[in-house]
Give the backbone structure.
Amino acid sequence: MSSVETLGEFYKRTNQIIPSDLLNSSGNSSHFNVQPRCYCNKVTPYNRRDHYKICLTIGDGRLHFANKVIEIDQPALVFSNPSVPYSWESTADNQEGFLCLFNDSFISAELKKGLELTCPLFNPVLDPVCFLNKEQAELVSGYYQQMTDELKSDYEYKFEVIRSLLKLIIHQGIKIQADYNIISQKDLSDRITPMFMELLERQFPVDSPGNPLKIKTASEFASQLNIHVNHLNYVIKSHTGKTTTQMISNRIVDEAKTLLKNTDWDVAEIGYCLGFDYPAHFNNYFKKHTGITPSIFKYNS
């Protein structure tokens, strides 16, 4: 999987002018855009993005995401979030609809509140595709057209109006998925394990003592996946035979062994980059899992 695509790189890839708010920002400014899907490439690169996207997809194609492929042959809402790698493959020349994309700075707390578990825009274990009938597609298309009109307007509070329209689109998707029961609990559980593994592996290899691990506990992983830690523990144990904590510990210990043997970093530096604030904590952790101290492993094994 390639590196994370930024908003600026998206505009370059689709041969568009990079908006001035991205050129003049320090990297944390709010950004929102809505446009027709006339920039829809035949095949887009398979990777993660640093932004959110909601597409009203009208046109046949395949959505590749995480470890699955979804055939799309009718109007659909496609929700994309920064946690999940994905790509689009058109299987028909005629591609219509809209897309809107925005970064985390654009999302207000009020917009996100209550949606973390029910919307695939924020919950990476949910199915990202919501199929629409003709009436639903026309309704959602109207919301996109209203967002387009607002974005062009000079109204002082136009982005608040856009956030309201965005929320209507999100809730429309949630309602349709609930009505048709598209998401099965088994399917969700089957996807939690690969999502957890992808999130775990994303932190490795550790390339600098100044870049320590940021997610180290089962609770922290559950928070990133927007699920309860007990459910995460149940799914991981069911699929792997090991607890979430054991999976994390095994990976950290494997990385510790690699760093101890293949770098000239001292033991304290290695412990710090693996998330241990004090050398004694790292020593005790490593010895608990290997039977020897990090120093003995580094210099004598």
